[in-house]
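#lab-general

N.A. 3:47 PM
ok so I finally got the sequence cleaned up, no stray characters, all 447 residues accounted for. can someone with queue access submit it? mine expired

B.Y. 3:52 PM
send it over

N.A. 3:53 PM
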Amino acid sequence: MKKIWLLMLMVCTVIGTFTACSSDDDGDPTPQLPVSGVSIPATAEVGGEVIIRGTGFTASGISLYLENSSKEKTAIDAAFSNAGVTFTVPMSLVAGVYNVILTQSGNEWTLGSITLTDADSPITSPSLSNEEVSPGSEVTLGGSGYADGDKIVLKAEGAEAIEISEVTVTADGLTFTLPTDCPEGEYTVNLVRGANSWKLENVVLKVQKAMRVKSINMDMGEMGFLLLELGYDAEGRLVSATTDDKLLNREFKYEGNTITAISLDDTKENLVYTLQDGKIVKATAADKYDETEEFNTWSYEGDYLSSVTNPGDFYEGMNLTFAYNADGNLEDFNFVGDVHYTYGETSILTVPNTIDPAIAIHLPNLIYSKEDASLAFLLNKIGKISKKIPDSFQFPVSQDETTGELIYQTYTVTAVMNNNVLSIDCGNAAAEIGIPNLSITYENIDD
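B.Y. 4:20 PM
back already:
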């Protein structure tokens, strides 16, 4: 019995000896934070740069995270150095308070916290190439700062937001295509990048179904009325233009890059228009005097018409010149004198891809004196038109007897669109200078 107790005592002694070694060898001391002197900025902007000062950030195996109030961690792509760590706050984060977490070899430390604020819009000078567009058409946003992965969200009062994720970033800005079922209305344009969104300032997109001119009623005061009616084929091409007095009475034939305006009046010849890149570049001169004056040449600056001139040796008709301002609106039109247009807060948008109202107010004079030009404006093959309707224009009414300088009179233009009818009131211009008040009736192309 004594031997048994002695043996048990020896076993316990051995066991006790191994337990102590294990304790000595496998001890788990508290891991030491590898960095010191850490200084974290109180706030930072989403998308902005953050610099955390401190030493020890070059230790091996360390990583940095931002942790939100829900304990969700976001790995940070940081640059570590002897002076600290630098990183850009991911655009996927939203404003709020975040813990700054450092990890190494499975160990984790909270270095402090930082408050993230909403980022400023990254887009500089946002703009629209066309403020009024139709469903299914392409929209181009001007400005700089767009990036791959950006999205566009259109918002209108009382309507569901429309998200457009298929966009193309170019050197000139960003382009996207409106859905074909996009409802009509005025939309604010919002840029989405990651979890952040910005309303683009001064950018409002008006969506309206594509329209065309059905008729133009010209009220010339004591000189009477002139009604112009237009007809279209199944492809939407202009096929007829007729005034109620039959002074203008044409049908149109399309073949390749030419359009022939066929006269239904035997006293007038047919007019042939030559197109290049969808724009008229040459047309039969209705006011020609001899064979050298047979054609007028149509010239452009970019997408805008700049002149209609005749190369005839002794041409005595009217050459036309056009000048558009930086906003894409017709500013000067040289026709029976230089007409100057002004635009202001009361200027409303034109209907895209139709006759420019700034030109339309001269239609009676054009029909009577330069029929080829009047038809070209109705064909809408002259490049871009003004984005807005002028709220006034200056017209030469007399000449200074001493200096010979032209004296201009200013006429106010009041334009109102109601139920697809655009009314343009030019005040006393009809009685004084023969410029009519207009009622332009439009129709939806898809109707």
